[in-house]
Specification:
heterodimer, A: about 180 residues, about 10% strand, globular, B: about 450 residues, mainly beta, Neuraminidase, 2 domains, 5-stranded antiparallel beta sheet, 4 helices, about 40% strand
């Protein structure tokens, strides 16, 4: 488990960044924050519970919270000025589509985001294209349209501050918000 | 920029810093000041009994605002106070010789006195130094609250008398600010301030994004996009009462509101039919007309001043470019051909040109496109400049830029010669829009 925690360290750092910088709403912060404590920040009081659960060798929580599941990934990244889902995220999107198809009572909001380059309303349109592209892939896996809400925030809610490719690539993203 | 100009610009900045103290405005002469009219605006004299309330230099403050306004228009070169050889209070004390020696074409002197009702009476005279005669004058009441506005109005009178064009100093800007609250959460505000960035007032605050403010032609209402209900909706708000109504909240994008010149309609972007298209909404009847029909992105509509056309951004040709469609529907024509990214266009008040954002290499810059000959003049030098908006007299463009990673506002004269930063306050500032002329800021002299 220690190794796994290390392996996910970059993701955790990212989650921290998202929670800290995005200025998101309370509900989203709660979701982003959950994996951080489970990931076993050394010395954190909540960490003890996580290791207890791991001894059983099975994940007893929601598959959305299971670090071993593709569903654990709820943010996917896009290339500059491209709305098509990148090849390396196809499996993640497909897993979410399967999950929705298997759980028809579950709904998800797909948020489309863009980096700061270019005009703001054009980026709103670009973010919507990204969200719609994800939605189409989810439906191809059998998810119902009624399970999926899309919203574009364009460049209005950056995950990372700063004007450079390292920030921009974190901001060109789609987020699954369950 | 030549060395000489660089030097001049430094001197000017220094003078400004010394003279203006903590003024939130820095002025940068980018291409030299050739052709700028030399003018001296003498600190207005206190003509009342005793001293001004609190010992404030009311007259000095008014003259400084007038100097700053004239200077930043790019049309004038204002003489620093420390270089003045005399400080006349009215025509009786003026020795035109003193000002000829300094190379001044024009001279402004003025007085402030209490009006007996807790306010002031402000008067000024504008002189032609060479002819030795008065060109115009003004005498009117004001209050301490309206002092800045009165000073801007005086600058407008001087500007119009000497250039033949109406001034646009006594107008407002609206803009969006985001800042982090103590608990780390984000707060987004829509603010209204004087055109020089002073007197900011918040008219909407939200924890969710606010976008795309647009002044109604009457200068009393703003349309904007708010995500406060976790989806994009368009609101129209009365600036001075705070009253507002939600006018568009369809499925998908509700964005980019733009007023028709008669103030009766809004052009906007809706994706309710699947992808972003331009629509026109009649505000009184709620009738909705679709103007574009294309699988590409169509967004950022802007009305021509004569109301006949709407320009918009579209990537129907593969890359974002500006297109034009008749406001009542019809054939779409491409407007921009230079470069691979042109967006967010808006018309100059005379309709002869449009301001837009263009990409040069990897940088986004503000440019003006002459519609008659398709000449594109790039006016800004930043990497991420956006949201250009013309002053109502067409003399300047305000836009958003990034300085040290922080959003700030800047303005540039349409000839590109004078550029300035409006360092407003904490937070990330963006999406400035310059108000039209309003009746309320046209007081009677």
């Amino acid at each position: 488990m220690k190794l796994r925690a290390l392996k996910f360290a970059p993701l955790l750092a990212l989650a921290l960044l998202l929670a800290g910088c995005a200025g998101t709403t309370d509900t989203r912060q709660a979701q982003d924050g959950a994996p951080i404590t489970e990931g076993g920040q050394d010395g954190a009081a909540d960490g003890a519970q996580t290791s207890g659960a791991q001894e059983g060798g099975t994940w007893s929580g929601s598959p959305l919270e299971n670090p071993d599941s593709l569903l654990y990934t709820k943010t996917i990244y896009f290339d500059y000025d491209v709305d098509e889902v990148r090849a390396d995220y196809r499996d993640v999107v497909a897993a979410h589509g399967d999950y929705l198809a298997a759980n028809p009572a579950v709904t998800v909001t797909i948020e489309g985001h863009a980096d700061e380059r270019g005009s703001r309303e054009y980026n709103i349109a670009l973010g919507e294209r990204r969200a719609n592209g994800v939605k189409r892939l989810l439906m191809a896996q059998g998810a119902a349209e009624s399970q999926i809400i899309t919203i574009s925030y364009g460049e209005e809610r950056p995950a990372a501050m700063g004007s450079g490719e390292t920030s921009w690539e974190l901001n060109r993203r789609g987020e699954f918000v369950y | 920029m030549t060395m000489m100009n660089r030097f001049l610009s430094l001197i000017l900045l220094l003078c400004w810093a010394l003279q203006a103290g903590a003024a939130p405005l820095t002025i940068e002469i980018t291409e030299g000041a050739e052709g700028a009219l030399p003018i001296a605006v003498v600190p207005f004299a206190w003509a009342g009994p005793g001293t001004a309330p609190g010992g404030a230099d009311v007259g000095g403050a008014i003259a400084e605002i007038v100097r700053n306004d004239l200077q930043r228009s790019g049309r004038f070169s204002a003489l620093p106070v420390k270089d003045m050889l005399a400080r006349p209070q009215s025509d009786a004390d003026v020795e035109f010789r003193d000002w000829k020696v300094l190379g001044m074409d024009n001279l402004v002197v003025g007085q402030v006195r209490p009006n007996g009702q807790g306010g002031y009476l402000v008067s000024f005279q504008l002189f032609d130094v060479f002819k030795g005669e008065q060109l115009t004058g003004y005498n009117g009441p004001t209050t301490s609250r309206d002092l800045r506005s009165t000073a801007h109005y005086i600058a407008d009178i001087i500007y119009e008398k000497l250039t033949g064009q109406p001034g646009a100093f006594d107008t407002r800007i609206a803009y969006v600010v985001s800042s982090n609250k103590a608990d780390g959460s984000q707060e987004v505000s829509l603010k209204v301030a004087d055109a020089d960035g002073f007197n900011p007032q918040t008219i909407v605050t939200s924890s969710e994004p606010l976008m795309s403010p647009a002044w109604a032609p009457d200068g009393r209402r703003l349309a904007y996009v708010s995500f406060e209900q976790k989806k994009a909706s368009i609101y129209i708000q009365e600036v001075f009462t705070g009253r507002r109504q939600k006018v568009a909240s369809f499925k998908g994008i509700n964005g980019a509101p733009a007023w028709s010149p008669d103030g009766r309609k809004l052009a906007l972007t809706l994706s309710r039919d699947g992808n972003p298209e331009i629509y026109v909404l009649n505000i009184n009847t709620n009738a909705l007309t679709r103007l574009t029909n294309h699988y590409a992105i169509d967004t950022e509509p802007a009305w021509s001043p004569d109301g006949r056309f709407i320009i918009f951004t579209s990537d129907r040709g593969g890359r974002p470019q500006i297109y034009r469609v008749p406001a009542f529907g019809g054939k779409v024509n491409r407007v921009t051909f230079e470069g691979d990214y042109n967006a967010r266009a808006s018309y100059a008040p005379d309709g002869a040109s449009v301001a837009l954002v263009t990409r040069q290499g990897g940088d986004f810059r503000v440019a003006v496109l002459n519609l008659a000959n398709s000449a594109l003049q790039v006016l800004s030098e930043g990497r991420l400049d956006e949201s250009p908006s013309f002053a109502p007299n067409g003399s300047m463009i305000i836009y958003a830029t990034k300085i040290n990673g922080k959003g700030e506002l800047a303005a540039v004269s349409v000839d590109g010669r004078i550029r300035q930063r409006l360092a407003l306050q904490e937070g990330d500032v963006r999406e400035p829009v310059w108000s039209p002329y309003t009746k309320t800021n046209r007081r009677n002299p």
